[in-house]
């Protein structure tokens, strides 16, 4: 790997980590567009990489949240169960969706989330 690629990927990771720790998101919202636009990675690989990056990122952030006593366990368990099922379904569907449609669906999701956050 070239030094410039390493620096770019490290910066993407750093920004992702900061945003995940601060907002509870970052895996998909930062990694997917950054890998696709900056690193020119194929969109399916961007989504799969984002999911893989989320695991260590979430474990570390979760320990900090738990240590500081800000985790709502009943809520976490309920949402977690649904998330595991949904994650399995989404992972199975990923390779069945064409890259162009996947990019559009992801863009729509990001815009809808932004609008919802803005007006909430």
Automatic annotation (TrEMBL):
GO terms for cellular component: plasma membrane. It is a multi-pass membrane protein. Keywords: Cell membrane, Membrane, Transmembrane, Transmembrane helix. It is found in: Cell membrane; Membrane. The chain crosses the membrane at residues 12-35, 47-67, 73-94, 101-119. Its main location: membrane. Pfam families: TauE. It comes from the Bacteria. Belongs to the 4-toluene sulfonate uptake permease (TSUP) (TC 2.A.102) family. This is Probable membrane transporter protein.
């Amino acid at each position: 790997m070239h030094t410039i690629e390493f620096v770019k990927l490290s910066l993407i990771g750093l920004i992702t980590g900061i945003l995940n720790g601060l907002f509870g998101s970052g895996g998909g919202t930062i990694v997917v567009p950054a890998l696709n636009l900056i690193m020119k990675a194929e969109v399916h690989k961007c989504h799969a990489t984002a999911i893989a990056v989320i695991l260590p990122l979430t474990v570390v952030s979760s320990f900090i949240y738990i240590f500081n006593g800000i985790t709502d366990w009943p809520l976490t368990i309920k949402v977690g169960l649904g998330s595991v099922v949904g994650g399995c379904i989404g992972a199975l569907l990923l390779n069945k969706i064409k890259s162009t449609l996947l990019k559009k669906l992801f863009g729509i999701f990001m815009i809808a989330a932004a609008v919802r956050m803005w007006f909430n």
